[in-house]
Amino acid sequence: MRVLVVEDEQLLADAVATGLRREAMAVDVVYDGAAALERIGVNDYDVVVLDRDLPVVHGDDVCRKIVELGMPTRVLMLTASGDVSDRVEGLEIGADDYLPKPFAFSELIARVRALGRRTSMPLPPVLERAGIKLDPNRREVFREGREVQLAPKEFAVLEVLMRSEGAVVSAEQLLEKAWDENTDPFTNVVRVTVMTLRRKLGEPPVIVTVPGSGYRI
């Protein structure tokens, strides 16, 4: 899942991004509304965690632009105000969910994951394919009943492949969904991660390389 965090309190923004990355999400961070609009115009995000009171361009206008563009991106709006009227107004603008500050980080993660599931075709909470069971919420992976310990990026790549339901996923798509914008697009990190993932999942191999196209399970 790829997430954009838009928050002008830089310490909070960076803390949220770090926490989401630990949950195997690819996260970009910006600190004002204008930068958010720029990123949205370049990258495809599953979820935008959007502070409402932003400098340069207000969070409401960022949300309106996402709705206007007809993007599948889901918006989780944050605000320091707990007034019901503010929450209602945010939802009417086009936000998909609303979370007042301060918030429990576990709740933020749960809401981001729930919104991420709504950006694509409905899938069961536990993904199963080729003898593999992947639980995104618990961050658990089992193959034929054996638990497999994965690093966050390995988990993220496996989740993208599982969600594709047998379709081929290109290295570029994996890079977009599992890494943030600071990753060198010419790096071999995808190939190395897939190799490590294959080894950890064991024999027989379940990740198939499709020459010139990408990978599939």
Automatic annotation (TrEMBL):
Residues 124-217 form the OmpR/PhoB-type domain. The modification 4-aspartylphosphate is found at residue 51. It comes from the Bacteria. Residues 124-217 bind DNA. CDD domains: REC_OmpR_CusR-like (cd19935), trans_reg_C (cd00383). The keyword DNA-binding applies. It holds the Pfam family Response_reg. InterPro entries: CheY-like_superfamily (IPR011006), OmpR/PhoB-type_DNA-bd (IPR001867), Sig_transdc_resp-reg_receiver (IPR001789), WalR-like (IPR039420), WH-like_DNA-bd_sf (IPR036388). Transmembrane segments: none annotated. PROSITE patterns: OMPR_PHOB, RESPONSE_REGULATORY. Residues 2-116 form the Response regulatory domain. This is Response regulator transcription factor. It comes from Streptomyces chiangmaiensis.
